[in-house]
Amino acid sequence: MNRSVCCLAGCTIVSLAYAGWRDDFEGENYNITDKWSKWTEYGSSIHYAAHDGLLHVTGMKYPVRPETVHWLDKWFPENAWDFETETRLGWLDTTKGGIGFGAWNTFPYSKIASFSLEPGRLFADIILGGGAGRLTINKSIPKGGFFTAKITRVGRVVSVYWDGELILQGSQNNYMPYQRTHLSFSAASEEDRMDYFVDYVSIIPEPGTFAATLIGGGLLAWRHKRRRSPGEKNRR
Predict the structure, then answer these.
(1) pTM
(2) The pLDDT of residue 15
(3) Per residue, what are the HEC states of the chain?
């Protein structure tokens, strides 16, 4: 086999290893527990339904206690230092309650960065560690619509993006591998009726390595194609 083809195959294997994970909430028999770990704090009444490529989350917390949360966790067992995790979320202007999105370290499972959202309000933070506390931002957002939230880490630098705009960035003192992404849903009172939509959630570990292998594989394929003689081309 041509050396270039062998190298291309190797690059393809490496790129697949770093391809990460994505949930588009599609399929007739979609079952959320096949892709997510879920647990409830204090008890709740929450319904998940996937249709038309969207996860529809409805329900109400009961009994209501401070910071009651229903979590969906995606654990990523491979140690990844650099990472990128992203989601597209939506809600109605009549929705009440809150939705969270965040990334966490390995043991002791400390948070890297997160969003806490509700119609009309955004709160985001980055945990710096090492006694440096955290960076935070509060801002107003529309009460209805779909929005993209993304968290990345390159080296020690954590960046938080909202609809493609960098809104928060800081360097971590406590630096440990990324391990999971979470979604959380909550209500502050018995009158809060959650009505949220999730379009997708994606995780790319070591995104720089993934991009480099794709580019390298593409260049090798292009080089191999150019080196083929006219006779080879005609015989295929």
Answers:
(1) 0.79
(2) 41
(3) CCHHHHHHHHHHHHHHHCCCEEECCCCCCCCHHHCCEEEECCCCEEEEEEECCEEEEEEECCCCCCCCCEEEEEEEEEEECCEEEEEEEEECCCCCCEEEEEEEECCCCCEEEEEEEECCEEEEEEECCCCCCEEEEEEECCCCEEEEEEEEEECCEEEEEECCEEEEEEECCCCCCEEEEEEEEECCCCCCCEEEEEEEEEEEECHHHHHHHHHHHHHHHHHHHHHCCHHHHHHC
